[in-house]
Design goal:
By secondary structure, this protein is of the alpha+beta class. The protein folds into two domains: 2-32 and 185-374, no CATH class; 38-181, no CATH class. The chain contains 13 helices and 16 strands. The chain has helices at residues 2-7, 18-25, 36-45, 73-76, 80-94, 123-126, 141-156, 159-166, 259-267, 278-284, 300-304, 308-331, 352-355, and strands at residues 9-12, 52-64, 67-71, 100-105, 108-113, 130-131, 174-181, 195-200, 203-208, 224-229, 237-243, 253-255, 271-272, 291-295, 337-341, 346-351. An eight-stranded mixed β-sheet has the order 1-16-15-10-11-14-12-13, sandwiched between helices. Strands 2, 3, 4, 5, 6 and 7 form a six-stranded antiparallel β-sheet that branches. It has a two-stranded antiparallel sheet with strand order 8-9. This is Regulatory protein, RpfE type.
Length: 379
């Protein structure tokens, strides 16, 4: 990875967390608050929500001297029985206000109801960090803050939480609302993706941006691999996209386990591919013209909660299974370009021509601009 970053062309990127970047790359949405809930709802239930949809994920809020720390489902080990019992109690209460609560997974819950002017940070942006309960913004923020207080009292009285307390385990004591929106529509028919389109490496054909008019944002190049880090600057690679010669107005395939990403891909008929390494993906690409998006999140949880050992182990695994094979494929002309999206404000695009920049010595990735904070602080 250090060689990749040292010899890459560096561009700016505004995406700040996994789902935001993925939905934009997949032509679903380019706003600051994309309809993550609707996309993951489709993945969980096989149908689009017929109304406004909001993620209402179970969390534990821990109070200390500095405020609240949010712990999400990755630390709670919520059982299906606990999830079913809590959602049933909360659903009965919410139904009084004409809201429907559905359980997509043990830690993925959904609220369905009338359109809301309600925004808040994604759960992945706040977990493991000090935060405030007053994070909701919009016309309907105050009513939902009061409603959440009611739900918290109701959750505290449930037998499952009483048992958790007795066992000295974190209770499931609140919901985190985020990702609200209605069923998204594909933009592929009316607006091209925000990509740099190249028929061959080094010959740019056109640039079209979703973002600010007149400011094209470089996201992807034909015949290339794109890779993104995840939500936190401490979290390694979250996205990759391979491409051989192709028209980059859309992706052909997707490697991901992220529910929202899988749901979003279905809008543009992007084929899901199961692959645990770069070699597996390259072997399963059956056409000479294809563009694939890969979402890698193995470091995500460790980064959020400052688990240095797990983070480093996951990074080493990514190096072995993805980064080294990608550089080899690029050198062997199996790929024309690769690009890394660390979600740290920059992208790192490397072409075969860039590999020959021998005057740029390979440096440790931790010394490169934009990556220093990866190893700072908790990780």
């Amino acid at each position: 990875m250090s060689k990749w970053l040292s010899r890459a062309q560096i561009n700016h990127c505004t995406d700040s967390y996994t789902e935001q970047a993925a939905l934009r790359l997949l032509n679903v949405d380019d706003t600051a608050t994309p309809p993550v809930a609707a996309c993951s709802y489709y993945h969980d239930f096989g149908e689009w929500p017929n109304s406004y949809c909001l993620r209402a994920d179970p969390v534990h809020l821990h109070v200390d001297l500095h405020g609240l720390i949010v712990f999400d489902g990755s630390t709670l080990a919520v059982t299906p029985e606990e999830s079913q019992g809590l959602t049933q109690v909360l659903a009965d209460h919410l139904l009084q206000d004409s809201w429907i609560l559905r359980q997509g997974g043990s830690c993925r819950w959904y609220l369905l109801g009338e359109d809301q002017d309600l925004t808040g940070p994604a759960l992945c942006q706040v977990r493991g960090r000090h935060t405030s309960l007053n994070m909701l913004k919009g016309e309907h923020a105050s009513p939902w803050t009061r409603r959440l207080n009611e739900l918290q009292m109701l959750m505290a009285s449930q037998a499952s939480n009483t048992q958790r307390q007795a066992e000295r385990r974190q209770t499931i004591n609140s919901l985190w609302l985020w990702g609200g929106g209605s069923m998204p529509g594909s933009k592929s028919d009316s607006q091209p993706a925000c990509f740099n389109l190249e028929k061959s490496v080094g010959s740019r054909k056109s640039t079209q941006a979703f973002g600010a008019p007149g400011k094209p944002e470089k996201l992807l190049i034909t015949n290339k691999v794109t890779t993104n880090f995840s939500d936190s600057p401490c979290t390694p690679i979250s996205y990759m996209s391979f491409s051989r010669p192709t028209d980059l107005s859309r992706f052909n395939s997707l490697v991901s386990k992220n529910p929202a990403t899988l749901g979003a891909a279905d809008i543009n008929h992007v084929e899901p591919i199961a692959a645990d390494s770069a070699e597996q993906l390259l072997d399963r690409i059956t056409t000479k013209t294809s563009t694939s998006l890969v979402v890698l999140e193995s470091c995500r949880d460790a980064a959020a909660y400052g688990d240095c050992e797990s983070w480093n182990q996951s990074l080493q695994q990514l190096e072995t299974q993805w980064f080294e094979p990608l550089l080899s494929a690029l050198s062997a002309k199996r790929l024309d370009a690769i690009e890394l999206f660390p979600l740290n404000g920059f992208t790192y695009q490397l072409t075969r021509r860039g590999l020959w920049k021998f005057w740029q010595p390979s440096r440790d990735y931790r010394s490169l601009s934009g990556f220093r904070q990866i190893t700072a602080g908790r990780v």
